[in-house]
Amino acid sequence: MANKMNGFPNDFLWGGAIAANQTEGAYLEDGKGLTTVDLLPIGEKRFPIMLGKLPSFSPLEGEFYPSHEAIDFYHRYKEDIALFAEMGFKTLRLSISWARIFPNGDDEEPNEAGLKFYDDLFDELRKYDIEPLVTLAHFDVPVHLVEAYGSWRNRKLVSLFEKYSRTVFTRFKDKVKYWLTFNEINMLLHLPYVGAGLVFEEGENEQLVKYQAAHHQLVASALAVKAGHEIIPDVQIGCMLAAGMTYPYTSNPDDVYDAMSKDRESFFFIDVQSRGEYPGYAKRFFEENNIELEMEKGDEEVLKNHTVDYIGFSYYSSRVTSTDPKVQENTTSGNVFGSITNPYLEKSEWGWTIDPKGLRITANQLYDRYQKPLFIVENGLGAVDEPNADGEVIDEYRIEYLREHINEMREVINDGVDLIGYTSWGPIDIVSASTGEMKKRYGYIYVDRDNAGNGTLNRSKKKSFHWYKKVIESNGENL
């Protein structure tokens, strides 16, 4: 049977992705409440807080918190959206800050000023025919919910999140068609404070707490899907995975099984959100590790009946695993996911493996597993960008990274995978989620801001800006 390889479909959604807590700033403006990310300083205390090991319920004196001003997208979004439109964006992925809508998380009534901000933001996108792709929870929980209830360890958050979801679905039902529930939901296992606002107590069974919180998020996600389908005509609601294949270091069956187990650790979440039930391997894991989840009557039916419409995922790098202790000594740094150094691949300045072919492998693996449309909602290169004497950033290294990954996306589509779109991470320079740095830049647009918060915040176009514009104009043909 003849099969003509056409590459990207005409309705392919090209764009970029940002998050409220890394861009907006205005962290207590217009009634917004404090969120968990607002308590992540840059520096040595950041990582212990992210792991849930260092309780923090208010900003500390002498610490710099990058999210408090970020890149001031809250006041500059019209300028930034105009630049995205100039590049030809078909979509912009962004998130709503839960604490802008319900400042404490458990308020009786929503904050109108917060709702109006997103109303105006979505109107601005629509002015340029840019489709909003909106994440309900992108690494932020109202701090009051952490203090009062222990965050997602507490069942109470399920109903509070459902109320928040129904509130924004009802308000924006005519403006937003594409939604995601939880950003990189599997990050809960690796950075539990970031992923779920978890702070651990001395001697606590941390594994049990994490998976109980995961169950609550999975039920909340399913209830959000239910609400969205009830409220918004033709809605598309997806889940979101921090993805990336795990390769076995050798053909030793122990290495192969370990790689499969590492992948399953992440697939667990999407198995539930997409298939609607806990997989057998997870049930065995719970039994062998004395993890007994508290479930309410009806939870299994909710999970089964309200699965997602598509699978969103981030892809930055692949990983390698080995069961050989000597090989394990050669581990890369920089990425939240530990990995053995892959001798066949180069690394970024932050130690992230650069593996374009891994994107094709990962996408095929996800599509084979779930048979649902995929959406690549994060991908990009974090690098130090130095303006030249003329103030220009000639970021050929970023263009090369993106070119290779987009080439593999074309192969993904030719493989028969239903791929909705591509939103590269950080189309404008933003605060790094992992390190809090500004010098780790992903954008096509340079923002004059340094790690200490100095700079004018002025925007300027990098070389990659003009390159990505041509990519979109040509629907991926001109790379």
TrEMBL record:
Q: Which UniProt keywords apply?
A: Glycosidase, Hydrolase
- What GO cellular-component annotations does this UniProt entry give? cytosol
> What EC numbers are recorded for this enzyme?
3.2.1.86
Biological processes per GO annotation? carbohydrate catabolic process
Top-level EC class: hydrolase
Q: Where is the active site?
A: E378 (nucleophile)
Gene3D superfamilies per the UniProt record, alphabetical: Glycosidases
Q: Name one GO molecular function term.
A: 6-phospho-beta-glucosidase activity
Recorded hits in InterPro entries, A to Z, give: GH, GH_1_N_CS, Glyco_hydro_1, Glyco_hydro_1_AS
Name-wise, this protein is 6-phospho-beta-glucosidase
**Organism source for this protein?**
Ornithinibacillus caprae
